[in-house]
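User: Hi! I'm working on a homework problem where we have to compare a predicted structure to a textbook description. Could you give me the structure for the chain below?
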Amino acid sequence: TFPLGINAGASVSDWWIGRSPLIQGGISWKNESTKADFLSSYLIAANVGFKDNVQKLHAGGEVFLLDEHLGLRAGFRYGSDSLSGFSPTLGLTLRTHRVEKTDFELHYGFLFTDAESSGSLHQFGLNVLFGDARKSEKDSIIAVQAERARKLKEQTLAREIEELRDELVKVAEERSALQEERADIERLREQALADLDRVKGVDVREDSTGIRITLLETSLRFAPGSAKIPFPEGFRTLDRTAGLLSQYPNAEIQIKVHTDNSPVPEESQDKFPDNLSLSKARARQIKKYLVDVEGFSATGVYAEGVGDAEPAQDNETPEGDAVDERVEVILFK
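Assistant: Happy to help. Predicted structure tokens:
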């Protein structure tokens, strides 16, 4: 809508020929209608004449043609002078229609005076209106755009929610599959543990840090002074041990070989001068088997021989010697 404007004009009567016109100026207000309305605008103008202090008030409506540049105006006017009084008016308006800043209107009006005046009144004027005549239309467009943006945001949000639901379904399915896989792994571990437990001379202990497998002399009996893995019993024991170790991929494995305190036989002392070197050689052979045959990573398997430095029992009895002669395989979880 337009705010207040300013206008200036002149009025001339048919019978007033030869006389100076009435110069007037004042303020006006117009309200632009929507496109659905019949009238393009409504107007009110209040003027003051500079001769005899004549006051005038105009009210009416307009219909604009020719791309809203040419207007037809009709309304009523009241004037404090004896010529016009309260009378209907018709007129033409030509405007620049610079609706976004300032609108200039040139106006011609024809006023019907009363019979006693025996004439009519012609009015010429310039009206300057400030503001934006399309503000309501623009506000409507902005509202429509805002509503479209809101609906688009809602649609986007609904799509994202649907995608999130699909993702949650996939996560649930993957979790279920992972749980089944873990259950299968646990069953395989339990089966591998049971197979190893059935081997005579094998002791398996598990805690939060890892699994300690002790292979006594009855399950892995090296020949005196020898580092060769005994065939076939020794390979069978190591194979079952590897079956349990393989259920924990990427875990570190330590091989620790012990001997009793019996001296190394003389025929083997050239190769293994003492129990420490013999135990280290046996540890290297076991690591070689796990890497070359069972496929474990060489960097994940550590071999250590300690000889008779860490006896498990009294070395003075045959039973104690049998317990001291052992291999410990430690898996760190």
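For your comparison, note the following. The mean pLDDT is 82. The two ends are 79 Å apart (CA to CA). Good luck with the assignment!
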